[in-house]
């Protein structure tokens, strides 16, 4: 340990230590290189998928707000009008009319 310098894992005579050689051999292995490539590709695909999912969620959300929310508000308003008409009819003594569908 004391004979090894801090740069490159080499000792004073310029030879690499066993740990440095093993580490270099493993990091230059075709399996490790292939694993790095696969991990990089997986990260790229995940990033693209998340980006497109976000766009789809934005489109679905704004479409819902523009088309469905006004419909729900109008249906609620219609229901309140029908209830008001039935309440007025019961106060005036007229027979209740079946609500329209």
From TrEMBL:
> Is Protein transport given among the entry's keywords?
yes
**This protein's UniProt keywords:** Membrane, Mitochondrion, Mitochondrion outer membrane, Protein transport, Receptor, Translocation, Transmembrane, Transmembrane helix, Transport
- The UniProt record lists the keyword Protein transport: yes
Q: Which GO terms describe its cellular component?
A: mitochondrial outer membrane
Q: Which residues cross the membrane?
A: 56-73
Q: Might you name a Gene Ontology BP term for this protein?
A: intracellular protein transport
Coiled-coil regions listed: none
The UniProt entry's sequence similarity note says: Belongs to the Tom22 family.
Q: What is this protein called?
A: Mitochondrial import receptor subunit TOM9-2-like
